[in-house]
Amino acid sequence: MSCLDVIKNALLSVSDNVGHYEALKKDPPYIVWAEDGAGRAVFGSNRKQAGTVTGTVDLFTNERDGEPLADAIPAALDRVCAWYLESVQYEDDTGLLHYEWAWEVPDGEIEPDQDW
Amino acid sequence: MAKLSQIKTGEAFVKRLDALGSNADKVAEAALKAGAGVVADEIRGGMATLPERTGVTKRGLQSGLGISPVRAAGGRSSYDVKVGFDGYNERGEPNMMMARIMESGTSRTKKHPFIRPAVRRSQDRAVAAMDEAFDEECEKIMKG
């Protein structure tokens, strides 16, 4: 499984309204995720020995309090990657609450249920 | 048996060590400004990749990017400095808000992260610049 499939599958375990780069269905609550670059890397013997991929997960919801996905997403990410809550923003014009988490996973192929 | 080595120093050397301590603010400022400069330059470079229609947002971000004064906190037990956005663009929108919209996106605007990747790319160089500035300031003080 690729490192990005790990993120995708973690998010699909908590919702089926999950889009990669763009929203699948803009029907709140909905999730959008994307990779955005490489994290730290370790080099040796003139080649990359290990590295990571970084990205974000965005949740858009109408719920001001008690949105279940606001807890379910970090719990799902916790099982597969390092993450932190980047921001929580309220959109005045749409009334949506926007959660954003940043994540980082080792790059390359990952075995399912790999023990970190 | 352990041997105790005694280092004898003159009064002048001790005075220089004192000077180092009493100039901690100056040393910290030099080091933090050096590191912040590296990060700010990387963020500025990353802005070139932002999409534009009229260019108003981009021009606002370019003019609004800056480095805060170095601040001592906790009774001078730590120092911090911020790289961020200030002011307003030509449409009167806060540059800080537009930076957040670009970085994180909204339900209506696709995200274009440029701050987090820039910080990640420049982290090692920023630390190296801070080390170098720190060493330079210490050397100036120690030479008297």
Question: What do these coordinates show?
Answer:
The complex is a heterodimer of chains A (116) and B (144). Chain A has helices spanning 3-12, 68-78; strands spanning 18-20, 30-44, 47-61, 82-90, 97-106. Chain A starts with a helix and ends in a 10-residue tail after the last strand. In chain A, strands 1-2-3-5-4 form a 5-stranded mixed beta sheet, covered by helices on one side. In chain A, 18% of the residues lie in helices and 45% in strands. Chain B has 144 residues and is mainly α. Chain B has 5 helices and 4 strands, in the order H-H-H-E-E-E-E-H-H. In chain B, a hairpin with a 4-residue loop joins strand 2 and strand 3. The mean pLDDT of chain B is 88.
Keywords:
heterodimer; A: 116 residues; alpha+beta; 45% strand; elongated; B: 144 residues; mainly alpha; two-stranded antiparallel sheet; two-stranded antiparallel ribbon; 4 strands; 58% helix
The gist of it:
Chain A contains two helices and five strands, in the order αβββαββ. By secondary structure, chain A is of the alpha+beta class. A five-stranded mixed beta sheet of chain A has the order 1-2-3-5-4, with helices on one face.
